Amino acid sequence: MQFKDAAYHILQQAGEPLHYNEITERALAAGILTTTGQTPHATMGALLYTDTLKPNSRFRRGDQKGTFALKTEKPDDIETQIKAIDSQVRKTLRKRLLTMHPRQFENLIQTLLDAMGLEETSVTTYGNDGGIDLRGVLNAENLSRINIAVQAKRWKNNVGAKTVRELRGSLKVHEQGIVITPSGFTAKAQEEAAESGKTHISLIDGIQLVDLLIRYQVGAKLESYPVPRLDEDFWSEILESEENDAHPVKKPLPKAAAPKVTFPLPIYAIYKGQTYRAELLNLEGQVRLGEHIFNTPSAAAKTIATTWKQVNGWTFWRFDDPETGQSRKISDLRI
Length: 335
Known about the structure:
Elements: H1 3-14, E1 18-19, H2 20-30, H3 40-51, E2 59-61, E3 67-70, H4 78-99, H5 102-115, E4 118-123, E5 134-140, E6 144-152, H6 161-170, E7 175-180, H7 187-193, E8 201-204, H8 206-215, H9 232-246, E9 265-271, E10 274-280, E11 287-289, E12 292-294, H10 297-302, H11 313-316, E13 318-320, E14 327-329
Parallel strand pairs: 6-7, 7-8
Antiparallel strand pairs: 1-3, 2-3, 4-5, 5-6, 9-10, 10-11, 11-12, 13-14
């Protein structure tokens, strides 16, 4: 190998930054570095240093002088991009919640509660609410009605135990209390809310609030875009069929003829210790499984082996040879 290729191989094995002298020693010891020069260590250091100046370099300089490491490629797959968008939306929502006027925040919470299915929601008189900002009724599928009282605290600092006590003291009989904030709650507030012997108070912090806003699409939209993906199972079946047509499956026994069977032929498969039974309708591969007819054995097998990325139905399904009683793959029928 040339110097940079050898360095890439050594750093890939090491998984950590190495000094160029160490990279050279390991490459020479492994016999993968091709050089006739008298100063391979210096050559390695100079080549790696020069290469890191290029924008498309595979290497980067380490934190210690004279060390080098492989660049970590930024993943660009769809799932990573979606996660990045999701994270950015959540950060923006949290930031906007923290900058809202308290009254606007109360109106937002009312909109969210309406979207969540609360009925008869109303905002109390601003500035004279006695520790309660909103009230509403949760109708539990017409089985029971739960009265809800909410204290909405648009604070940047964590909400303390005093707010929890004030809300509990303002609750009416059979009324449940909730404190909602875009920030968080102190440990004392959490202890107070769950204290035994007292009316339980539910706490919703900024992370939970953002989750609810996204889930019920209040101030956020859930969008979907069609993304084409290759159906590897489909192509595996098609290409395999073509391969089998060009190169017939070898007989499992020397000079054994294809077994003589009648259709529909009872077939079976064992998957995760359970036996599944079906019928092979013809040599073209149509399979009846339950009340459904599948055009290929693989299509029928996929409904069973759901955890497999690919499944070859011609080897997945088996039958009992009517002459020998031997269990055989249905691919033997295509000899």
